[in-house]
Amino acid sequence: MDGSSIDQSTTSEPISITPSPAKKLRRVGSGASVVIDAAAESGVEAESRKLPSSRFKGVVPQPNARWGAQIYEKHKRVWLGTFNDEEMAARTYDTAAHRFRGRDAVTNFNPLSEHHHDEIAFLNSHSKDEIVDMLRKHTYDEELEQSRCQSTRGPRSQGSEHLFEKEVTPSDVGKLNRLVIPKHHAERHFPLKGGSISIGVLLHLEDSGGKVWRFRYSYWNSSQSYVLTKGWSHFVKEKKLQAGDIISFRRSTGPDRQLYIDWHVMNSGPNDPIAPGRAQPAILRLFGVNVLEVSRNGGGDESFGFQNTDKKQRIIDSL
DNA sequence: CCATGTGTTGAT
DNA sequence: TCAACACATGGG
């Protein structure tokens, strides 16, 4: 049921985007748009209050002569920020689409190809919320560039790819001492072979602090679900996991295929979609950055300053 | 203030 | 899912 396979003709030109700036429109102040071409003014009853549509997917006009980018997921809009350049907004949408919908998402410009394997890795190693945050703050290109520099720096850091994430439920962090792994994610990333289904296997997951966690992973016939059982409650306790928090799984791209588990607090929820001005800079950095370095910093990092205090405390506790 | 981003609705 | 449109609102 992969809905997005509207591959046009060839791989070279998926969508014909011919910038046709024939119209010279300038939008003014409070939502009005005005034709500045003097010749066109006469005779035309200027319906100038209407905003010009964008020729790009995921791009909407803003009253202040700028452009907004947005993408939809699960019937809800995810705002990707505002931009001066219409094309920049379009590229922003493309990036989000690639992260949300994969390699062959329908985009405004060229699809991600083998030439961009490093960008694909970068996208997959960050959560959707992280990517959205970069896009809204216009720091995506910068962070992508930084990740490229880091990866080529010595044999130190092994790359890893994002597998999937889950917003934990109350029962996941409750007394049942188990985590349900959504079936499609489980079968895609953690397949259980034949006899292992009933008895289960032992998974070793490393967290961002380098600590290795051992979980029993098995299939429960009674509930027809894949679960982490033994060991899971210890993780919940140490990380002070709460319902609504996000756990994400990654796997080393190296030969070791090391598994990683990380967590962060909910960014977008049913009620509060995305905190506008104050995203979660400090929290979001838990993934890509050396967390120990932050704690050694003597708390000098002021980016923690404006976060909800109990959430902050939980993060500090986990370091 | 006013740019931003949300509420909302109607199309595809 | 998507964009059009109105406008609340909160950050400067």
UniProtKB/TrEMBL annotation:
Residue span, TF-B3 domain: 164-269
Subcellular location: Nucleus
Molecular functions (GO terms): DNA binding
InterPro entries: AP2/ERF_dom (IPR001471), AP2/ERF_dom_sf (IPR036955), B3_DNA-bd (IPR003340), DNA-bd_dom_sf (IPR016177), DNA-bd_pseudobarrel_sf (IPR015300), LEC2-like (IPR044800)
Any GO BP annotation: ethylene-activated signaling pathway
Ranges of residues in domain AP2/ERF: 55-110
Region (Disordered): 1-24, 143-163
Ranges of compositional bias, category Low complexity: 9-21
Pfam families: B3 (PF02362)
Composition bias type Polar residues, residue spans: 147-160
Keywords from the UniProt entry: DNA-binding, Ethylene signaling pathway, Nucleus, Transcription, Transcription regulation
Gene3D superfamilies, A to Z: AP2/ERF domain (3.30.730.10), DNA-binding pseudobarrel domain (2.40.330.10)
Keyword Lyase part of the UniProt annotation: no
Family: Belongs to the AP2/ERF transcription factor family. RAV subfamily.
Full protein name: Regulator of (H+)-ATPase in vacuolar membrane
